[in-house]
Amino acid sequence: MKYLVVSDSHGDRQVLVDLFNHYKGKVDYIFHCGDSELPADDPVWDGVYVVTGNTDFDSRYKKAQVVDTEEDIVYLTHGHLSSVKMGLMQLDMQAQEYEATIALFGHTHQLGCEVNKGRLFLNPGSILQPRGGISVKTYAIIESTTENFQVQYYDRNFEPIEDLSFIFNK
Fold this sequence. Notes:
The protein has 2 helices and 11 strands. The protein has helices at 13-23, 89-97; strands spanning 2-6, 29-32, 48-50, 64-68, 73-77, 102-104, 112-116, 119-123, 138-144, 148-155, 160-169. The two termini are 14 Å apart. This is Phosphoesterase. It is an enzyme of class 3 (hydrolase).
């Protein structure tokens, strides 16, 4: 299974249109981890799993979603309600509750991924306003197999970022 993961687009609708059109038919699932600042009924969300962020004020968004892809159970949240700036413990407990194999989040605008006890935690960074040591506007593609998670980060030009490619055993 291939998953496109993006977050923190903060009103830049066109980048989402470009991204989703580029990957149409190339990925199995698309996830947006919140802070889009778009209406929940925007047509851009057709076929996209999306959650609310701390700058989304449309009450129709869900705070979290659980998606069974047949390969994985994905727990999707923005992270502000999981205190991700303080660590991943609360997010881990939430993901455990649903027996999730992948926990996706945003909020910090800092990309990162790690596996703990077989569960992949991934922040795709921000497609608009990156923070931290890597100042590239990013999103991520996860390829999940029965053996491992392959994670590749990309820039806004759909180019893979060479040093940001990871393989984790399940």
